[in-house]
Amino acid sequence: xxxxxxxxxxxxxxxxxxxxxxxxxxxxxxxxxxxxxxxxxxxxxxxxxxxxxxxxxxxxxxxxxxxxxxxxxxxxxxxxxxxxxxxxxxxxxxxxxxxxxxxxxxxxxxxxxxxxxxxxxxxxxxxxxxxxxxxxxxxxxxxxxxxxxxxxxxxxxxxxxxxxxxxxxxxxxxxxxxxxxxxxxxxxxxxxxxxxxxxxxxxxxxxxxxxxxxxxxxxxxxxxxxxxxxxxxxxxxxxxxxxxxxxxxxxxxxxxxxxxxxxxxxxxxxxxxxxxxxxxxxxxxxxxxxxxxxxxxxxxxxxxxxxxxxxxxxxxxxxxxxxxxxxxxxxxxxxxxxxxxxxxxxxxxxxxxxxxxxxxxxxxxxxxxxxxxxx
Length: 375
Known about the structure:
- The chain is an alpha/beta fold.
- The protein is built from 10 helices and 18 strands.
């Protein structure tokens, strides 16, 4: 347990639910990734948690930023960084947003289709572009869907087309799936990227960038490999497929930087027996899927939950407070909480630094957005 966050939770005088963030731990995670991959630029995927304190800390450490929208670009610029340290990494953008990003000085844009490439060419002439390719996400606890990316052969054609459209074909990107615990998962995608580089070089097009995305995990109920293990495996893959002509590389960590830096403090609203054959009581918290715990969907991300109660544990169903039947966090998984847990008690939900505040609804059922306090 992070003792700094545990102490802050005990002293918390804010209303719950409240997310506590250890910004010093963010810095430690950043330094670990940089040490593991010293030749790779870090572009923080700020969608994980754009708290100003986090943004300012990683910017001061030399981080660049992966942004998904113009408001995110503006938040990144508010840290004082130069726009050259920003990538517009969303493959689905309005043309006017591309134009605004280009006016702000953003030099690098993602795409995965001809229509998106044409928008970039019209709105950001001369910009550098990189094409995202499909991956299967095998081994990830939160796999990314076919919503993003195209097949490698199509990427070759699109990068050729970029030349004719007046933008600079600069690289290839991929994402191996969020919460990826297989350190070898990057190898296949790096091989595909190297093949694209070779094919285009024969046409006189010299690419320079491989964007290896995110996927670096947080320890929830189980331990995960250290940053060093990922760095070693990825470097070995780059050498294997690119030889001594290594491209510029970037990564886009989100969860891996801030996930274990957060502790969500929640209050028990109700413990209810249903009288059914299942026999498990339902523990209703004042935070649920719509309050920031969206990644409990299909129970994909299983957070560690603790309490100060010491009674014997029993199996429970854990749910959120809203009037929506989908707002159940854990019913299939084997969660156990003390039998003397009662309304008004507080619980701590660990590893919640990423994809919580940014997933929380504005006011579903009238509940306020998830508060965030950096310590």
